[in-house]
Amino acid sequence: MAYFPTIEKIKYEGTETNNPLAFRHYNPEEIVLGKTMKEHMRFAIAYWHTFVNEGNDPFGQGVNERTWLTDDPMETAKNRVEAAFEFFEKLGVEYFCFHDMDVAPFGNSLEEFFKNLDEIVDLIEKKMEETGIKLLWNTADRHANPIYVNGAASSNNADVYAVSAAQVKKGIDISKRLGGKNFVFWGGREGYETLLNTDMAFEEENIARLYKMAIAYSNEIGHEELTFLLEPKPKEPMKHQYDFDAATSMAFLQKYDLTDRFKLNLEANHATLAGHTFEHEMNVARNYNALGSLDANQGDMLLGWDTDEFPTDLYSVTLAMYEVLENGGIAPGGINFDAKVRRTSFEMEDLFLAHIAGMDTFARGLKAAARLKEDKFFDNLKADRYASYQEGIGKDIISDKTDLKSLTEYALSNKEVKNKSGHIELVKAKLNEYIY
């Protein structure tokens, strides 16, 4: 059965086309700075928003029209596998990612859940072999189940901790079986509601224990190449989550000696919730050599929650792709569309239209970022701004040839301190020329 019978394979047709089911800017084989577009961006489809989301919100029931739905949860899960790989092939995307509970129903017990997972993963493995489509990353959903009301690895209940660990083990087993290169930890409920009854240090120590067990187990089963990705988010669903932002997450990883196997999976909308820009979070991660993978979406600045809109903000995407280029690429991570169609975009066709919009935006962002890099736009700005450190007292400072006494002597003898305008309005105007 074809789930998208009226949709042909999406092709690149260029900016002259009026076909909404075609790429105007994303040409997967186009060479940009020595690599193809598809190599630069390694697009992936998020199973949860694309095939599981019903289009409901806190004020209304689901509205999405989805032809794979049945009254039998396992039958629906099997249909989703067929629909997903049809979608991947027609969109021309080579990677996908999923939570365990996206692909299989939990059932009535952990044992039943694992049995359901095995059955569905059999189907996924077969489709991967048939199509050549690869797993970017998978993860364990340790937030949706009601037992995780007080957290998973941060739970006050040791029995809950054990279930959480079992899901992680199963997820690593699946990753090895499907040839996954990354495994994500998003601590959806790893945080606290109030400090009145919370031992924060104890909870964070328990989270670190689980991560170390995950590393040990991946080594034990010969899956040493697996990269673990920690995904920051400051709030939602918990009031305060432990992985607040990139800097907080890196402090945690350094404290517990986890940096050898962990990098960060960064999401644009989570950066917004933390009061940062996407490029800020990426730059922080890059400074720690920890930029692992990206969740591509955007938030609505007028709304105070995680809206997970498809990325169409060219300004933000350009600066994000510049960070990717400066990082030397994103592999073995990628750019997954952790984005859901708006509730008013409920038809099957909208899944394609939304992803096309996101992929075209990233393609334009990549080309703009490449122009910025080729012209050394940011390099020249920074070189000029920090020029005082290339000679004289500045050079002595960064060469570690000064101390407080010598700097005091210099400051007292220097009769005039003169700053130079950054002309930031001009800089932003020039940046607009590159982007638009």
From TrEMBL:
Instruction: Provide the binding site for Mg(2+) 1.
Output: E231, E267, D295, D338
Q: Record's SUPFAM superfamilies?
A: Xylose isomerase-like
Superkingdom, taxonomy of origin:
Bacteria
How, per the record, is the cofactor bound? Answer: Binds 2 magnesium ions per subunit.
Which reactions does this protein catalyse?
alpha-D-xylose = alpha-D-xylulofuranose
Start and end of every Xylose isomerase-like TIM barrel domain? 103-279
Provide the protein name: Xylose isomerase
